[in-house]
């Protein structure tokens, strides 16, 4: 039995016994030069351009989907390779899908054991849903759940068994009172986590924004097209995924090729993501690096330490140590600027600043 792996895993505690292949570089984007791959590696924390985030892991944010059928129903910025890898054609191990699969439109009276029984034929799995451990409920409260398969091959087998209607996948599931109800199956393809719109442009972390609250069905290519249509100059978009199951966390990042587009995006603060069934207002913030020296003193007034504050006001857009922040922002017109710092796993957060 699958329970031999130990205590029932949850989203916040995936089973370590399953194991994951080590990160390998992408096989490549079609028609993309080598420098594009290097830039994407930078964007995922493999150089000083972007710090690695493996030691700063935060909780996986889960939101109830609201864009699939009427019965179906966060954020972390630029990620390290283990969190979100560019998979243009799958990994070296041949993986194409996340082992975590969304299933929505479930019968209201179906419980965890019945869901497990309905999908066990595709391979060993665990059934989970947001706040399952806290609620101690045997029934998915919102009509949807997640299937956490032990093997990625199980996901392909599930897809093969589905029927397709208007580009959506369905499988019939029965409960004690409802027989053969079509439920929606939504796998996540790893290649949808990254999209290069303009491979000729280098990716500049200081022209990159964090997009919070991205709906999980949204693909990187769709995020890139929306942001490019609104602000222009998009050269890359990525969807943040969790390190274990490589499933979207609900956040993304977009890199621009020019300062004008970058400033337009952060000045808007919010953007309406509209694509197909998706229509959601999400927050846009500058991506805050944690390995930058103070732009004013270059570390001379802070003992060579990295700058803790970033000013997102368009009149600044600089990193500051505490001393330089106090000096610069005591000037007329700048005293109301709010510094951004990293929160948890690097989500930008405004903090109050007390004058020295």
Automatic annotation (TrEMBL):
GO terms for biological process: spermatogenesis. Residues 65-98 are annotated as: Disordered. GO terms for cellular component: cytoplasm. Its main location: cytoplasm. InterPro entries: CEBP_ZZ (IPR032296), CEBP_ZZ_sf (IPR038446), CPEB (IPR034819), Nucleotide-bd_a/b_plait_sf (IPR012677), RBD_domain_sf (IPR035979), RRM_dom (IPR000504). SMART domains: RRM (SM00360). Residues 99-190, 207-285 form the RRM domain. It is found in: Cytoplasm. CDD domains: Bbox1 (cd19757), RRM1_CPEB2_like (cd12724), RRM2_CPEB2_like (cd12726). Residues 73-90 have a biased composition (Low complexity). GO terms for molecular function: RNA binding. Keywords: Cytoplasm, Repeat, RNA-binding. This is RRM domain-containing protein. It comes from Cryptolaemus montrouzieri.
């Amino acid at each position: 039995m699958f329970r031999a792996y130990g205590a029932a895993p949850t989203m916040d505690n995936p089973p370590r016994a399953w194991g994951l292949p080590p990160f390998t570089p992408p096989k490549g984007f079609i028609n993309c030069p080598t420098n594009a791959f290097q830039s994407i590696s930078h964007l995922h924390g493999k150089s000083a351009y972007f710090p690695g985030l493996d030691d700063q892991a935060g909780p996986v944010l889960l939101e109830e989907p609201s864009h699939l059928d009427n019965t179906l129903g966060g954020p972390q910025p630029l990620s390290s390779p283990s969190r979100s890898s560019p998979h243009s054609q799958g990994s070296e191990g041949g993986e194409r899908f996340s082992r975590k699969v969304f299933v929505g439109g479930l019968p209201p009276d179906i419980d965890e054991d019945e869901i497990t029984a309905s999908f066990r034929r595709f391979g060993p799995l665990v059934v989970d849903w947001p706040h399952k451990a806290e609620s101690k409920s045997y029934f998915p409260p919102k009509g949807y759940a997640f299937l956490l398969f032990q093997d990625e091959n199980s996901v392909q087998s599930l897809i093969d068994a589905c029927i397709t209607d208007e580009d959506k996948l369905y499988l019939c599931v029965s409960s004690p009172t409802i027989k053969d109800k079509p439920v929606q199956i939504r796998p996540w393809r790893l290649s949808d986590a990254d999209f290069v719109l303009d491979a000729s442009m280098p990716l500049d972390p200081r022209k990159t924004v964090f997009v919070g609250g991205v709906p999980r069905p949204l693909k990187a290519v769709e995020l890139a097209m929306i942001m490019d249509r609104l602000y222009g100059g998009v050269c890359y978009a990525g969807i943040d995924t969790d390190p274990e199951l490589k499933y979207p966390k609900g956040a993304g990042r977009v890199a621009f090729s020019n300062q004008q587009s970058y400033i337009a995006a952060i000045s808007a603060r919010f953007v309406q993501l509209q694509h197909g069934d998706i229509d959601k207002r999400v927050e846009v913030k500058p991506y805050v690096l944690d390995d930058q020296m103070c732009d004013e003193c270059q570390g001379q007034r802070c003992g060579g330490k990295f700058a803790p504050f970033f000013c997102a006001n368009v009149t600044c857009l600089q990193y500051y140590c505490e001393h330089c922040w106090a000096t610069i922002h005591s000037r007329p017109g700048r005293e109301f600027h709010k510094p951004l710092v990293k929160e948890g796993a690097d989500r930008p957060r405004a903090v109050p600043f007390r004058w020295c």
